[in-house]
Amino acid sequence: MATIELNLVNGQYGFEAKDQSGHITKMDTKPEMGGQNFGTRPMELLLEALAGCSSVDVVSILSKQKQEIKGLKVVVNGERKAQDDLSLWKDIEMVFQIKGDIDPAKAEKAVSLSINKYCSVAATLVAAGAEIKTKVEISQ
Questions:
Q1: What does each C-alpha distance from 36 to 5, 26, 47, 126 come to in angstroms?
Q2: Who contacts 61 (Cβ-Cβ below 8 Å, separation ≥6)?
């Protein structure tokens, strides 16, 4: 079981969440909702988690295939759909920018395996109705 502790530490909506290892994440809401730009919005953290989860998979898969990764950047764009009182992620686009001596077909396959099989964050977002599209860009 994972345990997270969250405390109000800044203004009306500035929170710090601490995980079991002691890592701290700052959260806040939009300034127009009373936030003070203290931290990341909770829904944006989902996109960050998606990028992190899939990147771990992609690096692991490519490393096992002896691909030489010199750098990785993932740009995530998301659009939310308002329904009732919720505003869920609807369309998510991920661009994986991978540097190194990488076989493009292996990179495409690694990204596909991550999003469609291994990444729990992706599975969670898809189960909530999001569509995740990916693109891979390779450079030396």
A1: 21, 12, 21, 31
A2: 109, 110, 113, 114
Q: pTM of this prediction?
A: 0.93
pLDDT (0 to 100) of residue 82? 77
Half-sphere exposure of 2 (CA within 13 A, CB side): 6
Q: Which residues pair with 40 in a beta bridge?
A: 27
Is residue 118 helix, strand or coil? helix
For 129: left if phi > 0, alpha if psi spans -120 to 50, otherwise beta; the answer is: left
Count CB atoms within 10 A of the CB of residue 89: 20
Separation CA 109–CA 60 (nearest Å): 12
* CA gap 27, 41 in Å, rounded: 6
Tokens of 42: 């909770």
Report pLDDT for 81. Answer: 87
